[in-house]
Amino acid sequence: MATICVFCGAAAGQDPELMDLAKAVGQQIAEQGWTLLYGGGNTGLMGAVAEGTLAHQGEVIGIMPTLLVERERAHGQLTRLECVQDMATRKARLIELADAFVVLPGGMGTLDELFEVLTWYQLGLHQKYTYILNSKGFYDALLKQLSQQQQAGFVHGETLPLTSVDTPLALIQALEQKLKEA
Description:
The chain is of the alpha/beta class. The chain is 46% helix and 19% strand. The chain has seven helices and seven strands. The longest helix is centred in the first third of the chain and has 15 residues, at 17-31.
């Protein structure tokens, strides 16, 4: 059974469709028989992706620093919640446990997690793939920036371990294909 780490906002954002998108991703993860691994919160897109998985009898593992347990309100219904010392430990644990990474809309923390995963890949610390769910072009500017950095010689390798998709269905299909290859 694959463990899919989802990075996303602890806030809901301004577009209510994003909450539905996060729930749909969680549902798809559960329906595939995969485990959801995420930041452990019950608010925003983080809470929605967990709810989508739990509502369809999926397994959900949360990793949360103790300082955020109250601030982000740790989800009380998870299969397992690991409380860790700090954000660096959280990211290291998420990277360790995941088979693949999915990025939904989010803020600075989401970008921090994405760049940590890509950096560790570039350094050869893992060989796991990342998928951006670029709903409504949310990450278009970021993807353009990454391409520009690569073309300028600041991102190593011919391709990044990164695929951008537009829908939860396309995400699941891409994940299935990559997991079969692994």
